[in-house]
Write a sequence for this structure.
């Protein structure tokens, strides 16, 4: 409902949301796989619900929705050759180019013997072989091991930088989206509740100062004596003072603690990451 995503050409847009929030549904509607009950869908400035525009629109899009499927007895080249011929855009040079891009150009074994990471890479190659302008990827790193996740991440960054392709990606691994995306959209109950760039995330995320001390009781008394309000300006967690406001005064607080015989074991600035920001927005019901 009222999902108006502003995806800049050549950038990576990360779509976040809880299970059932509407990420896959929105992607399926963009691809014409699910019909919306009402409203309109515009892609490349064209009405995607108008049948006469569909060929022009969908030849510009590559996608992976759920697990990519291929002929199990065929290798990477053979699979892409069949897919390209079925689509009517067979080009051996394009096949070789995208297989090199996903590190499968020398792979001769059949698809049935591929690891999950290799299957996802071939899915990415299939989505790219017809030289699309937009790539729609629904949970492409789901189930991959850490090495496989890094591989896909590096490939997507490479694709956008070398080919200028725009990427719309969803994932439940928020730390990966934080590393990948130029812009982030957060969806909840079918509504886009927040859209921001990576730079804006840094500006809008909360910051606090963690001060670990050897005498938490005395440190708490000193904070209150200096005019700080517990649970508003600072919190106490075991042997840590968590400064929530006036974080630029941390050096003065450190100096005050030391002067009053409080040993400061550690002091560091903590910035809210994407996962914490996401959970705060969802819990606040924004």
């Amino acid at each position: 409902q009222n999902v108006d995503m502003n995806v800049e050409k050549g950038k990576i847009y990360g779509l976040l949301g809880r299970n059932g929030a509407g990420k896959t549904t929105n992607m399926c509607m963009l691809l014409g796989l699910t019909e919306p009950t009402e409203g309109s869908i515009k892609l490349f400035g064209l009405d995607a619900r108008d049948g006469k525009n569909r060929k022009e629109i969908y030849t510009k899009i590559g996608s992976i929705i759920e697990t990519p499927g291929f002929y199990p007895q065929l290798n990477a080249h053979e699979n892409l050759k069949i897919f390209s011929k079925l689509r009517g855009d067979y080009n051996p040079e394009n096949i070789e180019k995208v297989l090199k891009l996903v590190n499968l150009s020398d792979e001769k074994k059949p698809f049935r013997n591929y690891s999950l990471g290799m299957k996802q890479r071939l899915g990415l190659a299939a989505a790219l072989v017809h030289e699309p302008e937009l790539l729609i990827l629904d949970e492409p790193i789901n189930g991959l091991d850490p090495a496989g996740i890094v591989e896909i991440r590096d490939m997507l960054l490479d694709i956008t930088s070398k080919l200028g392709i725009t990427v719309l990606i969803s994932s439940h691994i928020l730390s990966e989206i934080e590393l990948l995306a130029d812009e982030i959209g957060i969806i909840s109950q079918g509504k886009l509740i927040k859209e921001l760039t990576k730079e804006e995330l840094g500006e809008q995320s909360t910051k606090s100062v963690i001060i670990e001390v050897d005498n938490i009781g005395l440190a708490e008394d000193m904070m209150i004596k200096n005019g700080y309000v517990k649970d508003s300006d600072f919190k106490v967690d075991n042997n840590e003072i968590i400064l929530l406001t006036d974080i630029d005064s941390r050096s003065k607080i450190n100096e005050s603690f030391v002067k009053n015989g409080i040993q400061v074991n550690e002091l560091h600035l903590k910035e809210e990451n994407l996962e914490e920001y996401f959970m705060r927005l969802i819990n606040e019901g924004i």
Q: What stands out?
A: The chain has two domains: 12-202, 205-284.
